[in-house]
Design brief:
304 residues, alpha/beta, 7-stranded mixed β-sheet, 14 strands, 27% strand, globular, binds ribose-5-phosphate
Amino acid sequence: MPALAGHWWEGRLRIIAGPTSTALSRRVAELLHLRIVDVVQKTFPDGESYVRLAAPVGGDEAMIIQTLSRPQDTSIIQLLQIISAAKRYGATKVIAVVPYFAYARQDKSFLEGEAVTCMLLSNLIEVAGAQSFLTVEAHSCDSMSYFTIPTKNIGAAPIISEKLREMGLEGASVIAPDQGALERTRSLANFLCGESFSVKKQRDRVTGKVTVTESDFDVSGKNVVIFDDIISTGGTVIETIKAVRKQNPARLVVACVHALLVGDAFERILEAGAERIVSTDTLPSKADTVSVAPLIAEELSRSA
Ligand code: R5P
């Protein structure tokens, strides 16, 4: 994306670099020629989080970039603290940019007695003082539905498809690891000029165990990309790899937007037969990452 120097809002808008997104904040700030406000962060001996804005934001619009990486609960309290501080010290508008929106999978009650934590988190972000919210590839429409402030959910398919094309995967078949991911998979397949399919996944709500029960497509001899929004333990993707490999695809690559990759998930996915794992930089990871900075910068320049 071209640099936007000289834009009328240059000088009014500040990027506040949340502790979990310092590198990404810098990339966005460079693209938009904006100044960064750093955040001083520490943890008290008893475990409480502390933040302080390292420069004034009074009279400015503040765009806080803070992804909700692990440990998510600490990232969340820091986000709320930064929003609240920006508001308290006179920011005229506070935009919360949360590249990975944790807890989005808890967007409804699946079992009686559960909290809808995604709703709670949306409420907290608003109460803290955010006036708009921007994220990348939210888990579901429901997960965005609890906000009453304006929201934007940026799709990551354009940048992921660029990377996959560089890897020679134009025309690849894109497989969704469950039917809920079909729309996202179709979008990536459109950018790659390939077809999209889905396996059927069942997850035991108590144990978390994933079973892939069926696949009614034929990808033998074809290049395949398995695409999911989140890879956490890797269980979903590994079961999908097993189902797809029965058909002897030519190449098999895994792509996701948010690579949590808990424990040895990265290694286990490669051992299961994936050639590579492609992800974005919404979270730090061992995967081959493509940056969402241009997407965020472009959205910001459009809405500023
Ligand atoms: C679930 O609906 C998500 O889209 C992912 O499929 C899921 O979070 C992946 O989790 P795991 O890697 O632990 O199977």
